[in-house]
Amino acid sequence: MKIVAILGSPRRNGNSETLAREVLREAEEQGAQIAVHVLNEMNIKGCQGCELCKTKREDCALKDDLSPVLTSMYEADVLLMASPVYFGELTSQAKAFVDRCYSFAKPDFMNRPDVSRLPSGKKLIFIMSQGAPEEMHQEIYPRYEYYFNMMGFTERRLVRACGVGGKTEASQRGGFLDEARQAAASIFNEASN
Fold first, then answer.
1. What are the tens digits of pLDDT across the range 46-88?
2. What is the mean pLDDT of residues 140-152?
């Protein structure tokens, strides 16, 4: 089993990365091949809207540090995406990654049943951390889940750590670590069946 982890926080070892590392520990115990990509340490561009992935190519035309990440996502069984919420949205680094995943949508994808170029059956663990209370920013994950579902991710798990304003607060509250482990165990058990 291959898992690719996308860490979208500009802060190293913060809450979203701490929870992602807990998932990766579980993956390692299951013998998974793991690739970790820290977006803030990469030279990446956002989608340019060139539409070459819909007219002349079957991949993203941009060539930067994100190109091999997209390839590893294509080859992975599980995508682990982790981001804090900054000003009511995923970080700009994480959003740039998601926007570049547009290249996995086939031409005229809105009018066809076979939308995705990705192999079917991929799994997703989506980690969000936020200083705000639980009632805020509930709309973020359903928006992204819609697109990951459309792209063929058959199993999806959300780990949402709310009210963790301090950089390391998620690690001090065992419930969030347990939730990350449970999401990982669920996904990896399904992937091995």
1. 999 999 999 999 999 999 999 999 999 999 999 999 999 999 9
2. 96
Backbone φ, ψ for residue 8 (5° rounding): -95, 0
The two tokens of residue 49 are: 């809207």
Strands (E), the chain: 2-7, 33-38, 78-86, 89-90, 122-130, 153-162
More confident residue, 165 or 34: 34
Please tell me the distance from the alpha carbon of residue 162 to that of residue 176, in angstroms, as a whole number.
Answer: 9
Residue 32 and residue 2: Cα distance in Å, rounded?
6
Q: Does domain 2-192 have CATH number 3.30.310.80?
A: no
Q: CA-CA distance, 150 to 162, in Å (whole number)?
A: 27
Q: Which of 191, 175, 169 is nearest to 18 (CA)?
A: 169
CA dihedral 129, 130, 133, 139 (to 10 degrees): -80
Global pTM?
Answer: 0.94
Instruction: Using the CB atoms, write b or e for 143-165: b if 16+ within 10 Å.
Output: ebeeebeebbbeebbbbbbbebe
